[in-house]
């Protein structure tokens, strides 16, 4: 006889209520992915260094044009609220009242070393279904940058891979050319 395992899936609202009630601590590195509470990997030194370099590179965009957000939640659906490494957001009067939503994202960046397969195979398709226009996946294992564009319900129809010695510019900021060498360090 086989036993059927029941999963308990949570909504974003339940997830936040658990945090407010002290069931989940604010200092825990967690994110809600398709109803499941996932413990995020610890941030290693290479990962942290890459995020810092991206912040430095992206800080040339004035805050009157877009908002740079780092390692904060974005609400994708009622059951999904990941915390990507970097978000470029459209200007909105007040992000203090609600987390950003997909239509406000100009660029989303995930930096991955130990989580590269999860980011590529789980998160990137979720971002595509959420219609986030551009996602960068910095693959610290293969030392490359994967750029995903043209989202749809079945994934991104365009994926470009950039290597050391190449440059790339985000769709939202075509004049901002970023060196892959700089990103990878």
Summarize the model shown.
With 185 residues, the chain is an alpha+beta fold. The protein has helices at 12-20, 45-58, 116-129, 180-184; strands at residues 30-33, 36-39, 67-70, 86-89, 105-112, 134-139, 144-152, 155-162, 167-168, 178-179. Strand 6 and strand 7 (144-152) form a beta hairpin.
Instruction: State Rg.
Output: 17 Å
Give, in order, the helices and strands.
HEEHEEEHEEEEEH
Shape: globular
Strand order of the largest sheet: 3-4-5-6-7-8
Total of DSSP H or I helical runs spanning 4+ residues: 4
CATH-defined fold name: tt1808, chain A
**Residues in β-strands, percent:** 25-35%
CATH H-level superfamily = tt1808, chain A
Low-confidence stretches are none
Helix content: 10-25%
Derived from helix and strand composition plus strand pairing, the structural class reads alpha+beta
DSSP strand count: 10
List strands and helices in order, with pairings:
Layout lengths: L11 H9 L9 E4 L2 E4 L5 H14 L8 E4 L15 E4 L15 E8 L3 H14 L4 E6 L4 E9 L2 E8 L4 E2 L9 E2 H5 L1
Parallel strand pairs: 5-6
Antiparallel strand pairs: 1-2, 3-4, 4-5, 6-7, 7-8, 9-10
Question: Could you characterize the architecture of this molecule?
Answer:
The chain is of the alpha+beta class and 185 residues long. It has one domain (43-184): tt1808, chain A. It is 23% helix and 28% strand. It has 4 helices and 10 strands, in the order H-E-E-H-E-E-E-H-E-E-E-E-E-H. It has helices at 12-20, 45-58, 116-129, 180-184; strands at 30-33, 36-39, 67-70, 86-89, 105-112, 134-139, 144-152, 155-162, 167-168, 178-179. The strands form 3 sheets. The protein has a 6-stranded mixed β-sheet with strand order 3-4-5-6-7-8. A two-stranded antiparallel sheet has the order 1-2. It has a two-stranded antiparallel ribbon with strand order 9-10. The longest helix is centred in the N-terminal third of the chain and has 14 residues, at 45-58. The protein starts with 11 loop residues before the first helix and ends with a helix. 25% of the residues are buried. The mean pLDDT is 93.
């Amino acid at each position: 006889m086989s036993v059927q395992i029941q999963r308990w899936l949570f909504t974003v609202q339940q997830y936040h209520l658990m945090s407010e009630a002290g069931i989940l601590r604010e200092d825990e590195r967690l994110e809600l992915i398709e109803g499941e509470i996932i413990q995020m990997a610890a941030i290693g030194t290479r990962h942290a260094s890459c995020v810092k370099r991206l912040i430095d590179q992206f800080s040339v965009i004035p805050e009157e044009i877009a908002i740079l957000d780092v390692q904060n939640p974005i609400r994708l659906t009622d059951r999904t609220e990941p915390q990507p490494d970097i978000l470029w957001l459209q200007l909105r009067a007040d992000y203090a009242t609600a987390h950003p939503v997909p239509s406000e994202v100009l660029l989303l960046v995930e930096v991955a070393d130990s989580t590269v397969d999860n980011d590529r195979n789980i998160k990137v398709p979720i971002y595509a279904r959420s219609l986030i226009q551009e996602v960068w996946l910095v693959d610290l294992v293969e030392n490359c940058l994967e750029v995903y564009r043209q989202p749809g319900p079945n994934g991104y129809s365009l994926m470009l891979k950039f290597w050391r010695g190449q440059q790339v510019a985000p769709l939202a900021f075509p004049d901002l050319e970023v060196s892959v060498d700089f990103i990878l360090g």
